[in-house]
Amino acid sequence: MRGESRFTMTETVCITEASADGIVAATAASGAVACRFHPDSARQEMLSLWRALEERFAPAPLMCTADWTETWLHHFGRIVPHRFAVLSEGDSPFAVALVTQSSCERDGLAPIRALHVGTSGEPDEHSACVEYNAVLCDPRRRMLAWNALVESLDREPSWDELRLDGFAASELGELLDDPRWCWIRKPSRFVDCSAIRRSHCELISCLGGSTRKIIRQNLRHYGDVAVEWATDVNHAHDIFAELMVLHQARWRAEGKPGCYSSPIFTAFHRELLERFVPQGRMALFRVRAGGTTLGCSQLLIDRGRVLLYQGGRQFGDQKHSPGLVTDYLAIQESLLRGYVDFDFMAGESVHKQRLTTHSADLVWGVRRRPRLKFAVMGRLRQIKHWLRSIQGEN
C-alpha cells in the first residue's frame, strides 16, 4: 500500500530464532520489528494494551475492538486455544491480534491443525461467523504488521493451515497477491445511504422496478406498520428474545438446529447486547403490523455503517414477504438516522440483490503446508473418482 512500510520476502532481512519468551525479531529496511506472543494468562494486560491502541488508532473495526474480543474470549476462550500477538517497532507496540487454534477440522480422514487470526476457529455449531475481521494496528503500518505476523507464524512447525476469515479485501492489501494463499471472495452487498441522501431521492426510487412493486404491494397488505429501534438495554433484550424465537422456528421447520441452539453463541450475543447497545454500537430493530411482529433484526454499528448481523422473520406466509418489508424499513430507518451504509454482510441471495445498490468483497484465505496426509487424501479422492467413473461406464 502506498505510504506504508513493507516487510516482504524480497527485502534484505535478518530473522532471529524464536526465543524462549516467544519473541521473533526481524530487521528490514524500515527498522526492527518484533512479534511477541503472549498466553491467555496475560489476558488483562493484553486487553489493556488493546484498549490503548484502539484509542490511539480510532475508529477501530468493530470486530477487532477490545470489547468484542473480550466478550468473545469470555465465552469461546474456554473451548478455543488462543494467544495474543503484539507487533512492535523498538519499544513501541503498533499492532495487536488474537491468534486462535482449531482442531476439529478434517480433510477427509486427516485432521487439520489450523491457526486463525481474529475471533475465529470455533466449532461450526457455536461459530460467531466473524465478518469485517481485522488486525488492530496503525493503518500506516498495516502491511508491515501482516508480513511480520505471518513470517513469525511461519517459523512454527506445528500447524497445517493458516486461515484468515471474513476480512475486507482492503484490510489485506498485497497479501492477496501472495501465491501461497488460496482466497475465496464473497460479495457483501450494501446500500450507500450517504449517496441516497445526497441525491435527495426516496429509498424506494433507488431500487429496481419489480422490487418497488413488491414492496408497495406488501406495505399495502400489512397496512399501518410500526418500527422500533431499541437504544436501551431492556427494550433491546425484549426484541432479541423475539428474534431468537422467530429465527429458530424457521430453521427448525427446515430440519436444522438454528444458531441459537448453541448456548455459547446465545450467551455471547446477550453479553454483546449489554455492552454495545449503551455505546450505540448495536441496535435491535422490530417491525409490527396489527399487533403481529413481521420481523426483528440485530444490527451492529461499525464506524458509521449498519451491519445486518442476524434476523428473525414471520414464518409461514407464502403470499407476502415480511422479511423484505422488515429489511426495507430497517434501511429506511438507518437512512433517517444518518448512517453511512446498510450492509447485509457476506452471501448472495435474490433478496439481497433486490434491496442493495453496491457490493464489496469479503475474503477467506487458506495457506496450507505440504503434508503427506493431504497428499494421501488427495490420491484417495482421485481413486474414488476413478472407481465411480468405471461403475458409471458399466
Annotated CATH architecture of the largest domain: 3-Layer(aba) Sandwich
Helical content class: 25-40%
Main β-sheet: number of strands, strand sense, barrel status? 15 strands, mixed
- What coarse outline follows from CA principal-axis ratios? globular
How many domains? The number is 2
Rg over alpha carbons? 23 Å
Number of helices: 11
Class from helix and strand fractions: alpha+beta
How does this structure look, described?
This protein folds into 2 domains: 14-180 and 363-386, 3-Layer(aba) Sandwich (Aminopeptidase); 189-356, Aminopeptidase (3-Layer(aba) Sandwich), CATH 3.40.630. The N and C termini lie far apart (57 Å). It has 11 helices and 15 strands. The chain has 394 residues and is an alpha+beta fold. The protein has helices spanning 43-56, 66-76, 142-154, 169-172, 193-199, 209-222, 233-253, 263-279, 322-336, 350-355, 372-393, and strands at residues 14-15, 23-28, 31-38, 82-89, 92-107, 110-117, 136-137, 161-168, 182-192, 225-230, 282-289, 292-302, 305-313, 341-346, 358-368. 37% of the residues lie in helices and 30% in strands. The model is unreliable at 1-30 (pLDDT under 50). It has a 15-stranded mixed β-sheet that branches.
